[in-house]
Amino acid sequence: MRPETNHTVGIVDDHSLFARSLEKLINSFPHFQVIFHAKNGLHLQKKIEDSDLLPEIILLDINMPVMDGFETAEWLTLHHPEIKVLALSMQDDEHTILKMLRRGVKGYLLKDIHPEILNTALKELSEKGYYHSQKVSETLLHSLTPDEEGRIFDFKENELTFIKLACSELTYKEIAVMMELSPKTIDGYRQDLFKRLKIKNRVGLVIFALKRNLIQL
Amino acid sequence: MRPETNHTVGIVDDHSLFARSLEKLINSFPHFQVIFHAKNGLHLQKKIEDSDLLPEIILLDINMPVMDGFETAEWLTLHHPEIKVLALSMQDDEHTILKMLRRGVKGYLLKDIHPEILNTALKELSEKGYYHSQKVSETLLHSLTPDEEGRIFDFKENELTFIKLACSELTYKEIAVMMELSPKTIDGYRQDLFKRLKIKNRVGLVIFALKRNLIQL
DNA sequence: CGAATAAACAGGGAAAATCCCCTTTCCTTA
DNA sequence: TAAGGAAAGGGGATTTTCCCTGTTTATTCG
Fold first, then answer.
1. What SS3 class is residue A145?
2. Which of A70, B68, B131, B193 is the most interior residue, by most CB within 10 Å?
3. Terminus-to-terminus CA distance in chain B, angstroms?
4. What is the pLDDT of residues B99-137, one digit of tens each?
5. Which residues are annotated as modified residue 4-aspartylphosphate in the UniProt record (chains A, B) (predicted)?
6. Angstrom distances, CA of residue B104 to CA of B79, B108, B125
7. Angstrom distance (rounded) from CA A126 to CA B77
8. Distance from C-alpha of B71 to C-alpha of B53, rounded to nearest angstrom
9. Is the shortest CB-to-strand distance from B169 to strand C under 7 Å?
10. Distance from C-alpha of A109 to C-alpha of A135, rounded to nearest angstrom
11. Contacts of B146 (CB under 8 A, 6+ apart)
């Protein structure tokens, strides 16, 4: 049995209503207790620097204004690596997940949270130091293990934006406008990706993106 | 309570091993009993014409050589409309399902059958005269109710083949070769579909096909 | 620090593929 | 026989794709 310790949790979330119900939920779990809220990353910084009572775990929403989840995660791992960050997000595309994990996040939860899952996540975080949901594990497997042909892909920010836009009915020109780049640059992305991914045309790109969960329908 | 009648079932299936276990399963259900097997559609015809003891229900595999599920279903509804046909198939794409339903099939089961589901299907078939699984209902909802813009789509055989091939990296020319049609005819399909579906390019077509389950990854 | 190297970005030009608006032919069927 | 659909096609505009070159911006390293 686990000892009767109290684990503390901080919540950083823009959607205060959601955060409030999250707090209630967490406080209903044995051994866990929310000690503070923060509206965004900046707010969190202040809270942490002002208090000397640091939470063991922080729930971090990715989609926030002012200072988003990525920045916040970076700051946290840099300044308080002992705090375990559990990322919450609507997005389940591979790249977002990986981006957060690369920034030192210890767990990743999709936001349609079931109480038991959240409880499991918190427990595993404080016991094992990490939590990986089914989806995240799959993603890791997907992205960090080579594909059928032994390739590992790691897309840059711009490439990813391009891929996502290319999976729509937009014309390359229109994509160029949206990304504020020259059509020629876009063409460069396209060409490079076609070569790297060994695909023949845009349809190939769409299929690739779907298989890799870079986009969803 | 249902009366103690005995419902008879015929199985038409190419995979004899599967059919055998299916028979065992069915015979284990109360009130249901398998009275014959058939390897394919032709075989079934003979069996039916030779015997005067017709089954109440026939389990029909779609993927068969010689005389496939579609033809067989057609023949059955034409010559023995009183027999309830339950289609079994690996494919769960909308069009295949619809195609079978249009041929008078009374139920449709995906082949990863759970005993309880099969039992339910048989019971509903003999009691209500039809059975619709979750997936089939969804499909019907999907295809037979208008979409967001009030459109109903019903694709012809060739169109569907074209759509599926267009969702690959094949070139239109290559598609034309595969379908043994002139590239211009293919172009006609493309044009017509783009107009009907209000899409701008091939990517749009791929997305459409995916949303409608016409193809799967 | 400055030079070397790499990478992102942009362009020209041309071939191929796609997209679009039309007509004609043939066949089925009402 | 008229109507309608499927197949085939002409011709041209546009887009996509491809290859090669140059410029600017980071980054690394001697």
1. coil
2. B131
3. 45
4. 777 677 888 887 667 787 888 788 878 876 777 665 665
5. 61
6. 12, 11, 13
7. 63
8. 22
9. no
10. 9
11. B152
Query: A7-143 architecture in CATH?
Result: 3-Layer(aba) Sandwich (3.40)
Distance in angstroms (rounded) separating the CA atoms of residues A20 and A28: 13
Residues B130 and B40 sit within 8 Å (Cβ to Cβ): no
Q: Do A166 and B203 touch (CB under 8 A)?
A: yes
Going B207 to B209 to B210 to B215, the CA torsion angle's sign is negative
Strand D nucleotides, any atom under 7 Å from protein beta carbons: they are 6-11, 15-20
Element (H, E) at B26: helix B16-28
Q: How far apart are CA A177 and CA A186, in angstroms?
A: 10
Considering Cα of B145, then B147, then B152, then B153, what sign does the dihedral take?
A: negative
Cβ-defined contact of A217 to B210 (cutoff 8 Å): yes
* Bridge partners, A86 (sequence order): A59, A107
**Nearest by Cα to A172 from A194, A152, A153:** A194
Give which of B33, B34, B41 is closest to B12, Cα–Cα: B41
Q: Quick check: B198 CB within 7 A of strand C?
A: no
Stretch among A34-43, A64-73, A88-97, A136-145 having the lowest mean pLDDT: A136-145
Six-digit token pair at A47?
Answer: 């809270």
Q: Which ipTM did the prediction report?
A: 0.57
- Cβ distance B169 to A211 less than 8 Å, yes or no, reads no
CA gap B131, B87 in Å, rounded: 10
Sign (positive/negative) of CA torsion B66, B67, B70, B71? Answer: positive
**Is domain A157-211 in CATH 1.10.10.10, yes or no?**
yes
DSSP bridge pairs for B108:
B87, B132
Does the nearest atom of strand D lie within 7 Å of B195's Cβ? Answer: no
Pairing type for strands A84-89 and A57-61 reads parallel
CA atoms within 13 A on the CB side of B36: 19
List pLDDT tens digits, range A138-170.
555 455 444 444 445 667 788 888 998 999 999
CB B13 within 8 A of CB B22: yes
Distance CA A172, CA B151 (A): 29
Give residue limits of the domains in chain B: 7-143, 157-211
Tokens representing A173 are 């020109």
CB-CB contact of B36 with B47 (8 Å): yes
Sign of CA dihedral B177, B181, B186, B187: positive
